[in-house]
Amino acid sequence: MWQAPVAAGAGNAEGSVALRELCERIASARPGAIDGPPRIVELPRPAGFARAVNDGIAVGSGDWIALVNDDVVLEAGWARRLLEATGAASRVAAAQGINLMAGGEDDGEAARIDGAGLAWNRRWQAVQLGRGETVEAAEPVIGVYGVSATAAIYHRGALVDVSGAGSELRPFEERLDSYYEDVELADRLHGAGYSALVVPAARAEHAGALSSRSPRAARRRTRRVYANRLLVVARRLGRGFWLKLPVLLGRDVVDALRQPATAPMPGDLEPPGIADLARAWSRAAWLLPRFAHFGRGTEERSEAGASRVSTPPSAAAGQRTGAPGVRPVLSAVAPHWHDEEHLAELVRDWPDDERFELIVVDNGSDDDLTELATDRPNVSVLEPGRNLGFGAAVNHGAAEAGAELILILNTDAVPEPGALDALVEAMANHPDAAGLAPRLLGADDAAQASWQLRRLPTVRTLIGYCCFVEPAPAPEPAAGTPVEQPAACALLLRRSAFENAGGMDKRFWPAWFEDVDLARRLADRGERVLYWPEAVFRHGLGASVPRLGYGAFLAAYYRNLDRYARKHHGRGVALMLRAVLVKAAVMRIVLLPLRCPGRARGRGEAFAGLWRLAAAATGWRAR
Asked: Do 156 and 243 share a domain, yes or no?
C-alpha cells in the first residue's frame, strides 16, 4: 500500500488547477491502489514547502509516500514504475523519474530534462542532474545521491529512521522553509546508508517555479537558495564547514560578480546581486547555530561507516538473477561484453563467501549468463537489455550493490586468494581514503603498475596520446602511496566517494577515459586513492579490443579523449588536440610499411582504422 501523493500548493491559479486535476486522477484510481480517499489539508496561512508536505505526510499511513508539486503532470504509470524499480534494488529510500520541462514537445523541440536526481557540484551547490539535456530512450535505472521532492516517492520507514520522529513524522527540515529541504533530507538518508534511484521510464512534466515568476519573487527565491545552501552545507560537513566557509562565501561573491549569461548557476536560478547575498548571509547567520556544529557532519559519518539500516519492503521483482544472502561488506561490479571465457574464470575463482558480492552487468553476450548465478548465492547477473557502455554499466551495478565498498572490476581481472580480505581490512584501517588500487599481475607474473597507476593527464600528456606515444613508465610505488589515476579494471571505492563524485560519466561510451574522468573528479574533491599491493589480482589486459577491432577501438578511444579534453581543459585545447591527432594519424599511415600497430591484425586493418580516425576527428562534436 502507498500513501496518496502529497502535493504542496503554492496558492497560485495554475497550481490550484493542477492540484485539483491531480486529486481527480487519484479519486479515479483503481480501488485499493491507495489508502483511503483523497484528502486536502488546508493550512491557515502560507507555511513553506517543508511544513506543507510534513503536514500531508503526518495524516497518511502508507509504506510509500509520493510527493508531487502542484505544477507537475504525471505520465500514466509513474508510481507503478517507481515502485517496481525500488523492489528490484536494495535499501532504497527514495526514487524519482525524469522530470521534463513543460512545453518543449508542444513547440516542436525535443523534450528537455528539468531534473533527473540531485548531486553536489564542485562549488558546493546542489544541482539537478541532466538539466537541459535531451531525453535518451531506454535508459537504465541508475543510482543517484538524492531525489528532488518535485515528484518523488519516499519509504516511510527510512524517513522514520533519519528523522528521530516521535508520534508524528515530520522528515523535512521546516526551518529551511523552501529550497534545499529535499537536499538536506537526501544527506540524512545517504548518511544513514540508504540509496536513491532515478527511473527514466517514469516521466513527469514540470512547469517550474510557479511561485516565483515575478521579478520580486525570483529575487526572494535566489536569496533563500543561497541562505539555505550555507545551512545545509554546514550540517553536511560538520566541523569541516568552518574551514570551507571562506571559500563558500567567496564562491557566492564570484557568482554575484559574473554576468548572468555566463554564471554557472544551478537550475534556472537568477545570479544574485551583492544586496541579495547580504540578505542571504544575514538569514543564514541567524539560523546557523541550529545547523552548524563542531562534530561530524553527515558526510563524515557516512564515510566512517555509519550503521546501516534494514531494507524497505520490496514492491516487485526485477531483472536480477541470483539470490541475496547476508549483507555483503564488498560488492564487485563487473561489466561484461562478449567475454564469456574470462567471465567464467572470474566466477569460478570468486570466493564462496557471502561477504563478497559479485554483480555482473551484461552489456552483451553470446551465451545465457543466468546459469552463472544458479548455485552461487553471492553472484548476480543484471540484464539491462542493451550495451550501456562500461561507465553506465558500473553505475547500474552500483545502484544494485548491497555493500558500502564498491569494487569496479573487469571480467579479466581475477582476485588472488585473500585479496578481497586485504582490501576490506585496509579500508577499515584507512578511513580517510576514498579507495584502493590493488596490485595487478599479468600472465607472466609481471606487475602492471606502469600501465595501471598514472598521473592525471596534462595537456602535454594528451598531446602524446594523440601522437600515439604513451607516457614514460614509472616505478611501482610503495604501499599506501596516493595514486592520481588508477585504472578501473580493478578499483575499490567507498560508495560515498563514488556517489558524491557523481559516479561514472555515461557519455564516455562504450569505454576508455571514463575512469580518468572519475579520477579527475575525485581529485578535485580532495579524495585520495591509495595503492595497496597486498591485494593481488591477475589481469588479462585488453580482452575486449580484439573483438571490437582496431578501427572501432581507435574511434572510441580518441573520441572519448576528445570528450575528456573538452570537459576538463576546454574547447580550445580539444580543437588543438584534434589537429595534432589528424596529422599524427596521417603520418602513421605513411609509416605503415615500416611498422604495423600491435593492436591491429594487419596493415590493411590498420590503414582503414587510421584513415577513418583522421576523417572522423575533423567532424567530432561534443555531446
From this structure: no
- How, if at all, do strands 113-115 and 126-128 pair? unpaired
Once rounded to an integer, what is the mean pLDDT over residues 88-106? 79
Give the pLDDT score at 214. Answer: 67
At residue 29, the pLDDT reads 42
Residues 597 and 535 in one domain: no
Are β-strands 435-441 and 529-539 bridged in parallel, bridged antiparallel, or unpaired? Answer: parallel
For residues 535 and 553, state if they share a domain.
no
pTM of the model: 0.54
Q: Which of 427, 420, 433, 401 is nearest to 536 (CA)?
A: 420
Distance (Å, rounded) from C-alpha 305 to C-alpha 565?
Answer: 35
Q: Which domain holds residue 432?
A: 320-545
The total number of structural domains in the chain stands at 4
With residue 356 as reference, give the H or E element that holds it: strand 356-364
CA angle, 392 then 513 then 599, to 5°: 110
Count Cβ atoms below 10 Å from residue 102 Cβ, excluding itself.
Answer: 18
H/E/C letters for each residue in 204-248?
EEECCCHHHCCHHHHHHHHHHHHHHHHHHHHHHHECHHHHHHHHH
Residue 35 shares a structural domain with residue 156: yes
Break the chain down into helix, strand, coil percent, rounded to 5: 40, 20, 40
Residues 360, 254 share a domain: no
205-229, pLDDT tens digit by residue? 988 655 555 677 788 888 899 999 9
Q: Which of 179, 171, 262 is nearest to 228 (CA)?
A: 179
